[in-house]
Amino acid sequence: MAQPAWQEPVLLPVDTAPVPEYGSGSLCDLLPTLVAGQGVPGFTAAIPELTPADRNCVFLIDGLGWEQIGAHPDEAPFLHSLLPTSRGGTGRPITAGFPATTATSLASVGTGLPPGEHGLPGYTVRDPGTGELMNQLRWRPWTPPKAWQPHPTVFGLADAAGVRTAQVSAPAFEQTPLTKVALSGGSFLGRLSGEERMDTAAERLAAGDRSLVYTYYSEVDGMGHRFGIDSDAWRGQLMYVDGLARRLAEQLPARSALYITADHGMIDIPFDEQSRIDFDEDWELRAGVALLGGEGRARHVYAVPGAEADVLTVWREVLGEQFWVASRDEAIEVGWFGPRIDERVHGRIGDVVAAARDDVVITASVNEPHESAMVGMHGSMTPVEQLVPLLEVRS
Questions:
Q1: Is pTM beyond 0.90 here?
Q2: pLDDT tens digits for range 235-251
Q3: N or C: which end of the chain has fewer CB within 10 A?
Q4: b/e string for 235-264 if b means 16 or more Cβ within 10 A?
């Protein structure tokens, strides 16, 4: 709530943002922990609560955060029943990473690295080489994938070490640059229906003495963006994916562990001027800004050269009661993107980074009409967006 006009605004200190648990309990720690337990050289078990298994399967449900499962026991009875198993039986979630968005999270999962190292630190970020915004989910404009993300994937390293490795997903994802830089290694098996994916994942899990299988479902996220997580359409998807998870769990071969997780949670944002601040209509926020990147709840702001300090001051004055607003150096120092930042990634991070604490977004109605019309949003470090499950079924 805004302060009365005669009071100074109470700005959110940058170091009060809940930084993800990089190194001990985040998405980037999952695959390194699993393959360390399978004896793949060069990896250590970063999530100490997990017990090794010969066969590991990761089922990632796009957009299904920890709090959404907890709030819907009737629509997701199977997933809800598994909440006590999360994070090795501690009943706790893990964190997605910042920003809590699909491209960033999938790269964290597949490379085993935090965003500051794999280099996909947002939905859209500036390419320092061209000065253009790069959409890292849709890979537009096209950019050489290996130059953008040169680190090997955990899947590839595990496959080279003799682990039977496979990804089971929609056929359309097989040749995407994001798949190549984040999820490649071993076999890609395209399957159209969710049921086919679950059945194929179970088959591939049984195909090796040591196996690592990843499978994915996207439409929970899609319905949330379009209709919100308070909609019948979203609840219907939740009921469907609950059945998929049960189907896969019932087919696990011996010596297997199934981990059900997500790339981020989601929050519905009301359609009013207080909740949706339109950058394209706000002259104060636009002043001195060359490019607006990121997404509504996790913005990268790129200033006109020489205007960086002024842009930071204005964004803090206008938004600092509702957003954690940091300079690039501050965001790096407090660890928003992980403990280390690769040199090639430094310039991709905004001169100013704004992460929402309150139920508010920064839209861009002219330049981002599709994204601005979404009901469900995500990206920031609040629990509803950041906390994701690590549900476990073992055979």
A1: yes
A2: 999 999 999 999 999 99
A3: N
A4: bebbebbbebbbbbbebbbebbbbbbbbbb
